[in-house]
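I'll show an entry:

:::
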Amino acid sequence: MCGRYVMAKAIGDLVAEAEAEADANLELRQSWNVAPTTDVPIVLERLIDGQLHRQVHVARWGLVPGWAKDLSVGVRAFNARSETAESKPTFRAAVKKRRAAVPVEGYYEWKKEPGGKKRPYFVHTGDGSLIFFAGLYEWWKDEDGSWILSTSILTMESPEESEPGVLGELAGLHDRLPIPMDKDMMARWLAPMDEDGAGLIEQLREQAFDVASQWAMHEVDSAVGNVRNNSPELVEPNTSQLF
């Protein structure tokens, strides 16, 4: 699952890592505590005059299909289960034609301890590079005629606890894993010409653990649990747990 994440990189750095282009008026707000229903950057590809363009856009986190009566549908659709997305009315059209990548610097997950206590962890790459999660996007027309772009992150079952290294640690955090992509998989996933969404999802799942095996994780302060807290200190290791 992915319910909170970090995206605080400058637009130029994001565009460079995504190998994309961005409108000169694109505005992104740094956030160390991104929550559903807020605006987030996504990467998608479009055919314009026969040429493929990879672009960075801003979308509302929580997918709202075109047939929805109001935005509230997106509150329940910030994640999409990869096993069923192709058949679910909310996601199936996007799986076929509107696939995206959601860039993050890392994400938070809460580990359940005996007695019901939960301890937050920050999962990130070892070298500070971005993670690109497999996502979906949709356009929804509001009553006033404006168009709203929205997105969702695909998830899959977590690795087994018997897996070595960080994969086994991820298993102990949650039973769901947001699906990361390597560079080649991202190119296949974003390609708007390919409408075999089911086949692409299978490819996503096959390479996800290889990508995630390069991650690192550490415990952070419980302050991250309050979305009103938003500062670089949120991703710092919780040193009170080291002694």
